[in-house]
Structures are given as C-alpha cells and as structure tokens.
Amino acid sequence: MGPLQKSVYWRLSLIFVFTAFMFFVDVFTVHHFSCASLRESGNVNFLDESPEKNFSYDISNENRSLSIAFAESFNSSECGDNKLREYGLTMYMSGLLLGSLFGGALSDKYGKKVLLVGCSTIQAIIALMPAFIPNAIFHLTARLIGGIMCCGINIASFSLGVEWSLPRYHVWPPALLSFSFSIGMMFLALIAYLASNWQQFYLAIAVPQLLCIPLYFCIPESPRWLLMKKRFSTLEEYRHESRKDQENLDLILETVGMKTQQPIEQNNASERISDFQHFKSQTIVQRLCIMSFISLSSALTYYGICFNVGNFGVNIYLAQFFSGLTEMPTLLVPLLLVRFGRRTFTMISLLMSGSGCLLSLLVSKLCDMPSLVMALALIGKLCMQTTVFVSLLYGIELFPTVIRQKCVGFVNLWYRIGCILNAVLSPKDGISLEAMICYGSGPILGAGLCLLLPETSGISLPDTVQDCKKQPVPSLFSKSRKVHVPGKDCSGLEPIQELQ
C-alpha cells in the first residue's frame, strides 16, 4: 500500500467519524430538550426520560432563548412529545434525499475530491453554528443542509476509497469506513453524556471537524476519473510520489507497460455514447431495480432500529453506545467476503437481518425482556450494516465507469427515501408490530432478488456496459469464477495477508 492510498483511507475514516456525529445528533437533541420546563427564575430543568441523568443549571440568555424557541415552536413542554426529533430527522433525511438527486452528477463532472472537500467543510461549519444561533428555524435549516452534505460525503467517499484500491482489496475501504462510522456513534454517546448543555454539545462535535478541514485538501483525486477526463499531468504527479504509488497506479489503471497519456479505446468509444443510451440497457435497468429495492429495505431496517434505540426500555446513552459497538465486527467482513463472495454474503446478511428483527418481535410479544429484545434487534442491525456497506461496494462494481456515479446516486436515492419514511413514521411509544414486520420481511425478499445479480469478486471495475454483461452470474451459493475481460486484470482474489 503506497503513501497516497494510506492518505486516502485514514482521511476518509476521519471524515466518517465526524459524519456519524451529525447523523445521530437528533437522537440526543430530543433527549436533552424535549422535556424542558422553563421557570420564571430563568432556570431550566432538562430531565432524562430515565432517572440516570438529570441536567439542572442556570442558563444564559442564548440557551434560554433556544429552550423557549423549542418549547414554543414544537410544543415540547410535555416530556413525552417527540416533535423535535421528528422534525429534525425529517429535515435531515430530506437533505439526504436532495443530495442523492445531484450528488452523483456533481461527482462525475467535477471529481470526487472537490465534492468531498466541499461537503466536509460545509458540514463542519453547519455543526458549529447552532451553538451560537439559538433559533429553532435555523436548527432545522442546518439539519437540511447537513443532510445534503452527508449524502455528498457518502457518494464521494465510498467510490474514492474503492477506486484507489486494487481489485482484490475493493472490499476493505467500505469495511474501514463503516468501522469508523461505528466509532463515531460511540463517541457521540460519550459526548452527549458528558455535555451539560446545548452549546457544549455542539461545540464538542464541531470544533474537531473545523480543525481537521486542512487535512482534507491533501486527499488525492480518483485515478480512474482523472484518466477519463484526460488529466494526465495530475496522474503523473501521483506516479512520482513514490515507487510504490507508481506500481499501484499502474495496477489500478490497468496500464502496466503503457504510458498514461495513451487513451483507452473503450473510454473514447463510450464518450461518444450518451448516458441515456447506457440506461436503455436491460442489464443496467435490472441491476438498478434490484439494488434500489435492497437499499430501500436496508434503510427501513437499519435506521428504523438506529433512531429508536431509546424505545427499547433501556438507558439511551448505553443503547447508543452498544448500537455502535455491535457494528465493530464489520471490519472482519472482508475475510468472509474472500470466502463467500459479494452476492452470497449479501444474501446471507439480508436473511440474518430479517430473521433477527422478526425474532426480536416474537420475543417482545411472548415475554417482557427489553434487553433481550434490544440485543436481538441490534444483531439484526449488525447484519444490516454489513449488508449496507457490502451493497455499496457491490453497486460500485456492478455499474460501468461512464455512468457509475449516476447509478450509485439513483440507488442512493431509494436508500434516502427509506430514511425519510423512517423519520416521518417514527413511532412515539416503541416500535409497532407493523414496523417490525416491515423491518424483517424487506431484507428477506431482497435476499431472493440477489439471485439475479452477478458475482464481482476479484474482477476489475467495468468501464462499459459490455464489460457489465460479461460479469458472471453463478449458480446459487457458488463462489465466483474468474472471467477474462479483454484489457482487464482479472487475477482474482489474493490472500488478505498481503494487505499491509
């Protein structure tokens, strides 16, 4: 692994830790402020729904005005009201949906680095401003903008990480980013527990992001995108960083023994074909439909559990912490993917996720054991998290370079629709029977649809629709076979021990 690859991976991981802060901030916002009771003396008492934590202190004018705004705007004087969380989640998920509409197109046009740096910078600024602008309308506006930025970060990060990896290591960047997201979830629970007021809470999650902004400008651009745009001078700069980087770039671009200035015939031919013609292919349409359904059902299950960890009858801080902790094993998933391949593993994780949710529903109806119900639900969530990042990798490998980001953006659109449905239909008093049935049945149906998809393990990223058609569709639960695509490096999977 060359210096440039290491630079990409650790910087993307840092961004994802901060992205988790912004993603789940509404979980603790409602917990701190939905139960505010203002007194004439200027004191405010923020009561936890459980007796473990009680915030009681004198507040400044800024914090007081913020509390008044929330109390008046959202009618949150009663402790059981979740209006604040519903509005905040809805605005954030709406932002994710808006970002998915144009994030892929912007990434294709201007590059993944530009989109990533811009979104990360704006996200850091948006995280800081609510600490000093105590206004309910501004808070919701900030959540909307934050959702758009988060979507842009997701679209650019996963593709950038995969495109800087050799074919046999494509699975590691999504695993690393998912692992970083889990760390962010656990740190957020700790920050929320230690913060004594709104301003401290937002400063604690915003200041580190601002300090790290200069690091993002050193992230290198996608080599495949640079080659497609014929920016050979930038590629040459990357090649001269170190001998290891030169070797890796040759393997990534599949141009060993050739100069990067020589254009690739397939790329030139694909440029003469409009994007609309690519989307008329039956292969592309089928894959878009299947991956969109899997994304929709994954979002319903994953975030339906994530945003309702406080409804399982246990301490919300511990619930959020263990919600992140249960996702830590996703770092080991690449080892399993070497054994089973993308398609088979996606099917297994979808089946286990749906089964875990349905089993937790059964236990909740037969016995009063909130901890066991939450444990089963979190196991289902772990399986769904593995499905989410494997399907992200899968989606990148299923679509050709010429329209990859547009396809990823379309699939991501349905993922965000599932997020919005969760936010709008978020239950006030626990997860309903209908919701848990939905969380469990969707992944099981998605597992069946995976039978129509090809296996992409160890195969180079396709550049054209013809490359996609040459990807193998193996029999049920069979491991991928090597397929030769002219001009491609299909060396297959190498031992994971080679990764350094």
TrEMBL record:
Record keyword Cell inner membrane present: no
Keyword Metal-binding: no
Domain Major facilitator superfamily (MFS) profile: 12-458
Entry-linked SUPFAM superfamilies: MFS general substrate transporter
Topology in the lipid bilayer: Multi-pass membrane protein
Classification via Gene3D superfamilies: MFS general substrate transporter like domains
Any one Gene Ontology cellular component term annotated for this protein: membrane
Molecular function GO terms recorded: transmembrane transporter activity
Record keywords: Membrane, Transmembrane, Transmembrane helix
InterPro entries, alphabetized: MFS, MFS_dom, MFS_trans_sf
Broad class of where this protein is predominantly found: membrane
Places the protein is found: Membrane
Transmembrane segments: 12-33, 89-107, 114-138, 144-162, 174-195, 201-219, 288-305, 317-338, 345-366, 372-396
UniProt protein name: Solute carrier family 22 member 13-like
Organism listed in the record: Lepisosteus oculatus
